[in-house]
Amino acid sequence: ADVTVTMHLHKIGLYVAPGCIYAGKVLLADIGVPPMLGALTFNANCFLWNEESSIDALPCRLPDMHKGDRGSVAVLGGSDLYRGAPLLTSLGALRAGAGVVYMILPEKVYEQTGQFLPEAIGVPVRSDEYFLTTKALDAISAIEDKIDVLIVGPGMGRRIETVDLAVKLWQEYPKNMIYDADGLYALSLNSAALDRRDNVILTPHEGEAGRLLGCNASRVHENRLEATERLSLKYGPVVLKGFHSIIGDGLRYLVCNAGSPALSVPGSGDVLSGVIGALYASGLDPVDSAGLAVWLHAKAGENLSCLEGVDGSLAREIADHVRFVMGDIRYAKEKNRLGRRVGKDGKDTPAWF
Q1: Which part of the chain is the YjeF C-terminal domain (predicted)?
Q2: Which of 120, 157, 292, 306 could form a disulfide with 57 if both were Cys (CB 3.0 to 4.6 A apart)?
């Protein structure tokens, strides 16, 4: 369909794959039923995350704030094969408003790549190798008091020593974390030994989700909402990436209503984990921070596809566009707060009633 008209309330099947692929643009028609009646009838725990949700969730920025008020993110990753991944994650965090970003990298990786993102603080881990080991625990401990959110996994690789590091952090590091990429691979090898954690967000694509659940990616693709529920009940808050990503924590599930093929490029997921980290560090709860981040990332992809087409996007461009999407919804949030229309020139004009 080019357009699907649905009545009274949005329907889950129009937004979750495979339905969302066939529905086209979805229009909601008011047929006179009071909204409260639907809420009382269905007792739903699955919600559509859209622009209104994003405006409501966007953290406020006080006039006298400093960078420490924005929250701090640490990115743990990097290896000989994947040197750029932690930089893209750090860039995503900075573009989404993080006040301080630390890059905890193998020393040899930092020497070769650290200068490409001078806005982030480098924390090289001394090693003769191009991969992280449990030696990184000392580096994390040294700055633990300064970290609000630790992102584990971008470009870490899959060596035994690195897997041990990721598992040990899950078991012993008490603060808020995000697990992505090779961090998820490490969890999948040790799932039976892991307790569920409420303050750690997992960000798998369908292949990684299948590995965590012990099934194949096609099974996840055919049952995305069920897979999200199973992951959240077993591990904790989760973002199942893909067209119309799903976020859940076992109690509440959100379906993003945006997305674009422009996002299907190398490093896009690394940027997303950084955006989630910045919003989680700002004080939002895991589900809201992930919901807002996923929507910002998805709209950035849509903007890129409108401006430059769906092919040839770079992950760093997605990060750059996240900033502009945030600016647009902050403008809308401020307009709603003031109850009047704020002109592009900064002057206030009366609202329309």
Answers
A1: 50-329
A2: 292
